[in-house]
Amino acid sequence: MATTHKVTLIPGDGIGPEVTAATVSIIEAAAKTTGASFEWHRYDAGADAFAKTGEYIPKELYASIEENKVALKGPVTTPIGGGFSSINVTLRKKFDLYSNFRPVKNLPGLETKFPGIDMVIFRENTEDLYAGLEVMINPDIAQSLKIITRKGSTRIARSAFEFAKKSGRKKVHAIHKANIMKLSDGLFLKCCKEVAAEYPEITYAEHIVDNTCMQLVMNPWQYDVILTENLYGDILSDLCSGLIGGLGLVPGANLGVNCAIFEAVHGSAPDIAGQDKANPTALLQSALLMLRHLDEDATADIIQKALEAVYAEGKTLTRDVGGTSGTKAFADAVIAAM
C-alpha cells in the first residue's frame, strides 16, 4: 500500500491561496494515476494568521512542519521598512534550512531573449546580512551585521558540489565580493576553495558579484551551478528568473538536514489577488521538487510532462507569459494534458 505523505500546506496571502489550490488540484489528479497519496495540513501565516491567532507564525504551524518534515508554501507578503519580520527568513532560520536551491530552465514554447538556459543556484540561506542582526546606533544611523561562518559556507559549498557530481554538471562558480569584504567574503571563498579541492572532476571558478550580474545578461550560458551567499543569491536568483520569463515560472526549495520547505519565489501580488489571473507555474514547479524529495518521481514526471505540453502548445497560458487564460483554466489544461 502506498505511503500517505503528510504535507504542511501554507497557502499564504494575495494570490497565494489561488496558486496553491491550483497546484494541489494538479498533484491530486496525478496521484490518482500513480497511486500516490497526500494528506494536506493547512495553516495560515503572516497578517492573516495574526488576525486570527495573534501570531504571525502560529505555534501549530511550527509543530506541523516539525512533525511532517516537509511543507509547501505559497507567497506571503512581507512589509517593507517596518512591520513583522519576513516569514520566509523566520522559517528558514527556525528549521536551519541552510540550502536554498533554485533551478532555472526555459520552458518549451515560451520565447525569451535567452533560449537554452539550464542553471542551478545554491544560496546559503541562514546567515549573511539576512541573519537580521540590526540595531539603531542613533536616530540617524542604522547598523546591520554581516555574519559569515565556516560551518555555513562549507555546508552550502558541499551541497552545490554534491549536486553537481550526482547530476552530471561540470562547473561550479562561487560568487563573492571578497575584493572589498576581505574577511567575511574572504572566509566564504576560502571554504568554497577547500570544498572544490575534494571534487577535482568539477571545474571550479570564481566571479565577483557585480561582474556576475553583467555576465548573466551578456552570456548566461557560461554558468552551470552558481554557489553564493544569502544576499547575493537572493538578487541573482531573481535576475536569472528574468532570463527565462520571470518569477512566475521559477521554483524554490529550502533544504535542511531534517526538513524542507518548497515555495514559489515570487511575491503575493495583491493587485491581482482573487481575480483568477495568477500563474501557478512557480509553485507547481516547486511542488515537483517536493515530489522528487518525497521519492514520488512517477507523479512528478507525469506533471512535468503535462506542464511542458501545455507550454509547448501555448493555447492556455496566463497573461504574464502572453496568454489570456486564468489560473483555474491553466490548471485544468495541465490536468487534461496528463
TrEMBL record:
Matching Pfam families: Iso_dh
A GO MF term: NAD binding
Organism of derivation: Granulicella pectinivorans
InterPro entries cross-referenced by the UniProt entry: IsoCit/isopropylmalate_DH_CS, IsoPropMal-DH-like_dom
Domain Isopropylmalate dehydrogenase-like per the UniProt entry, residue ranges: 6-334
Domain of life: Bacteria
Keyword annotations: Oxidoreductase
Protein name: Isocitrate dehydrogenase (NAD+)
BP terms from Gene Ontology: isocitrate metabolic process; tricarboxylic acid cycle
PANTHER family: DECARBOXYLATING DEHYDROGENASES-ISOCITRATE, ISOPROPYLMALATE, TARTRATE, ISOCITRATE DEHYDROGENASE [NAD] SUBUNIT ALPHA, MITOCHONDRIAL
Family: Belongs to the isocitrate and isopropylmalate dehydrogenases family.
